[in-house]
Each structure stands twice: as C-alpha cells, then as structure tokens.
Amino acid sequence: MKKNLPAVIITVCFVSLMIFLIARSINKGHVDIPDDYDLITEIPAEMIKVCIKGEIMYPGIYEIEKDSILVDLINKAGGLTDNAGEDINSVLILDRNMTIYIRSKDEAGGIDISGNNDAIIQKDDDKILFENKVNLNTASIETLCMLPGIGEKTAQSIIAYRIKNGDFKAIEDIMNVPGIKNAKFNKIKDYITIDDKD
User: Any idea which architecture 132-198 has in CATH?
Assistant: First the structure.
C-alpha cells in the first residue's frame, strides 16, 4: 500500500486539477452581479401638468403621469364635491397639459369637447366659456390657467406683474406681461375683466 501511495497522491492531484480546469472553463466569462443591480432599467414615466378647477375638493395644478385617467387626477385632488355634476367620463385619458373644469349640478353653459357634460376639457387653445369673466386683479394661478393658451408659467408672470406694478387698469394692460402679445390677447380678451361686476 505504501508503494502505491505516491501514485494515489498523483492521481488525486490530477483528478482535482481536472475538476478545477473543467469548473473554470464552465465559469469563464461569467460575472456575478450583486442582487442590487437590475439588468432591466425602468424608463421614468413622462409627467404632465393638469389644472383642475370647479367642483373639486382641492382645485389646483397637479403633476401626473401621462396617460393617467381623469379619475386618478380627481382622486389626487381630493375627490369631487357633493355638488359636482355626475356625467363625467372618469376614464378620459390625460395625455397632455390641459385644464379641466368640473361643473356643478345646476351649472349651465360651457364647451364640452370630451363627450362629458359635466367636465369641460381644455386642450391647447380650445376655449372654455366661463360663468363669470376672470378678474386679472384677483385671479389665482389656477384660475388664470383656465384661460385659452395660458399655462402655469404665464399665469405666474401675470401675478408677478400685478404684484410689481399694481392692479391692471384695463384688460389691454395684460399685453405688458412678458409672453402676452396681440395674438394671445385676442384669444383671452372675451374671458377677462378688471371689474368684479363683469
């Protein structure tokens, strides 16, 4: 047995070396990736800003994922008031910056381009008819955003101008606000006032 010991040791070493080489060739090029890393990178969702007004608990401008539906926005804004109209397309897709006005049960008038009777949707430069004109001297950013072609940035500029220069004396004075010239003024002139009586 002692005579065969060197041969046994050599055989064991040879077998161990072969196993090592086979295992190495199988794992060659394989890199272990820690569990923290995910090979599939998730693309961040595109966000849009939507102004919601009217019979909603918390009117305002909300950032929401593009292609969300109207009910998602309504929930984000605290839900409808008890006086909100009931004919609302809750699955309307929100696919761009827009303004939504939720009408009351007894409110009449307005343009409805969405197929809803109680949710008036403004996309791009579509006009909304208002029960009352927007007072340039008192309107909030949210209300100003309801005007055709007026986004959040321009609404902020209107308020900044008002704070710096005082109340507008005539509706034409709004053309002194950066970003508002004749074309934009013509789109909004029928919807704005400087007098609470209008």
Answer: Orthogonal Bundle (1.10)
- For residues 51 and 152, what is the distance between their CA atoms, to the nearest angstrom? 9
Amino acid at residue number 126: D
The residues, ordered by sequence, that sit 6+ positions from 99 with a Cβ below 8 Å of its Cβ are: 50, 51, 52, 53, 121, 122, 128, 145, 146
Asked if the domains 41-131 and 132-198 are classified in one and the same CATH topology, the answer is: no
Q: What is the pLDDT of residues 32-65, one digit of tens each?
A: 555 555 555 667 888 888 888 888 899 888 889 9
User: pLDDT tier at 113 (50, 70, 90 boundaries)?
Assistant: very low
Query: Token pair of 67, please?
Result: 């292609």
Q: CA distances (Å), 85 to each of 35, 80, 88, 175, in order?
A: 51, 9, 7, 36
- Tell me: pLDDT of 26 over 80: no
Two tokens at 2?
């002692």
The values of phi and psi at residue 24, to 5°, are: -65, -40
Q: Which two tokens stand for residue 1?
A: 């047995």
Q: Would you kindly state where each structural domain of the chain is located, as residue ranges?
A: 41-131, 132-198
CATH of span 41-131: 3.10.20
By C-alpha distance, which of 189, 179, 190, 183 is closest to 155?
179
Cβ distance 118 to 56 under 8 Å? no
Distance in Å from the first CA to the final CA of the chain = 115
Gap between the Cα atoms of 58 and 42, Å rounded: 32
- Among 96, 93, 104, smallest CA distance to 59 is for 104
